[in-house]
Structure formats: C-alpha cells, structure tokens
Structure of Alanine racemase C-terminal domain-containing protein:
Amino acid sequence: MYKRKHRKTYARISKKAIQHNLKNEQARLGANCELFAVVKADGYGHGAVEIAKVARDAGVTGFCVALLGEALELRQAGIREPILILGIVDVAYVAIIAAEKLSVTVGSLEWLKKAKLKMKNQNNSLRIHIALDTGMGRIGFRTVSELTEAENTVSDSKLFEFEGVYTHFATADESDETKFNKQLEIFNKLINKLKNKPRFIHVANSATALWHQQIPTNLVRYGIAMYGLNPSGHALISPVSLEPAMELISELIQVKEIQPGDTVSYGATYEATDCEWVGTIPIGYADGWRRSLQGQTVLVDGQRCEIIGRVCMDQCMIRLPKEYPVGTTVVLVGKSGTDQVTMEELAEHLDTINYEIICGITLRVPRIYV
C-alpha cells in the first residue's frame, strides 16, 4: 500500500528472528506433533504473506488465521499448505471454504446444520475442527450432549471431514495453574466422549507450548512467540530464547532549540523549563504510535530521549540531549548502542499487552524484510 521510498518511517522485520523462534519450538515438539504458524491479524502486524513464506521455508506444516479473508489472502499468494480458520465464518461461505481446501472452526449445532444444507450440492467436503469452550467463554461446545450431536452430524455425512477438535486456555501464561488445570480436565472429559477421534486434537497456543509442554497435543498453534515476544509479558520466564522480529525506525525531520516557557504540541501539555533541543519525528497515532505515549522514551544515537507533548496524528516530538542533524536515525522499538526499547516496555507504559502494540502498527508504516 505504501512504499518505503516515500517515507523513512518503517517497521524492519527480521526473517532470521522468525526462523530462530520457530527452530527453538521445533526442537521441543513431541513425536507426531505438527507446528502451525499463526498469521492472523496480518501476521500480528508483521505481514501475513511474507511471514507465512518464511515460516513455510522454516518447516511449519500449516497455518492458522482468524478470518476467511485472511485464509484467502494466503491462498492467493500461493500458500497451499493446510490453513485452519480459528474464528466463526458466516455459513454462507462454506462452498468457498471447501473449494479452497480450508479447515474451519465449528462452535455450534446451528452453524453445523445450516452448513449441511449449504453443502448438499458441493463436490468438496468441508474440513471441520470442533471448538470446545472449556472456560474461555468465547466460542465452542460446552456439554457432552452438544458435542455428541455435533459428532453424529459430522460423521453421518460425507459432506464433512472431521479433522480436528481443540480448545483455548485462558490462563496458560500465568503462574497459578488452577484455572488451566480445570480447563484441561473439562477438555479431557469432553474428548473422551468422542466415538471416533479426529486426526488433530490440539490445545497448545504459544503459552501452552512454552510452559505446559507435558500436555498431550499433536498440533501447536504458534503465534506471539514466533514473533519473538513473551506471551506473559514479564510474568513468566520463557524456557527458550525469543528474538523479537520487529523494529520500528524513523528519523529526525526537524531540530530546533526552544526557550524556557515555550510549549510543545496540542494542549500545551509540555512547557520547557530551560533551553532545550527538540526533534520532530514523522510518526503519530495514525501509524499506531499511540497518543498516550507521551513520556515514553525512544533512542537517538544510543541515548534515551523523552517524547514531550502529546503525540499528534502524523508526528511527535522528543527532547534531545544536544543538537542532532536532520536525518538522524530514531529507534522507537529496537536496539541502538547498548540500549533497547522493547514492545513489552511500550505495553507497560500503555497498560496493555505486547500483542496490542504490534497489531496496532498500521499499514501506513511500510514493512521492510531483512
């Protein structure tokens, strides 16, 4: 959508970091366990197609997305490996799902029955993964009776291929395992009632794969950790090395000296108390660089520089330790000298999680792959 040649603010994505993170997880996989790369939300902001190609070359055997459109984007880019859609898709599109050989999540009997009617005149079967709500409270079957009826509906028809059953843990990234173990107990109770087990029985997202390796699963849905970020933030120490794949880079487009009493940005929320050098950076909240990042620091020449005044739509200002020339590199996320700004640091400043930061970097920011 946007080309780097028009702008020197960009996200630099390391293919080697993605490969490193996948290699570490592959070394931990159990026997007969497959690794699917989760590339929903445009590859967590890293670029779904590019990351899928890197992951495929690194040896993953399939992909997970949230939306039908995301799956079709991969197919159109030549990704022929299995793709599991984790979200609920409008039943009107089951013919497309079947024709593209995609796998789809089913979370209710109503959806399954409507899909059966829609599939009557189709030549392709619909690949089904039954979602079980064991405590997330989001999507999926909750009772044995519902699951039994769903299995019977799928098994009694050649229109469906019962490919998988899965759940999602709400607290796999927490030290207290009480709720996690309760969900696991419910999941095991439900799947033990299946008359015929499908090919895939899976429970492992990144957090489960990292901290609950002993849980039986034959498919790992590897998401945030593939991008080098800890699912728990700082709550738990990762058992493997995670290398962040995204850096956010910009430059100084104007540098000026302001005097005591001068104010900076909307609302005049920052007032200089001395003579200060101020640099302007061409990135703002329209790029996903949030307005509430006032007070956060970025790196110039390895030194921490505070964002002063409110972040604007397209620009923000920083206090410099001295005069720097226009064009000087500014590292908003990543390393400069001996220091580093991390996604976790931004998340803590914004009282959120690292997932939201990377997914929030908008398409105005070009992705450069190295």
About this structure: The chain has eleven helices and 20 strands. The chain has a mean pLDDT of 96. The two ends are 19 Å apart (CA to CA). Residues 49 and 74 are 6 Å apart (CA to CA).
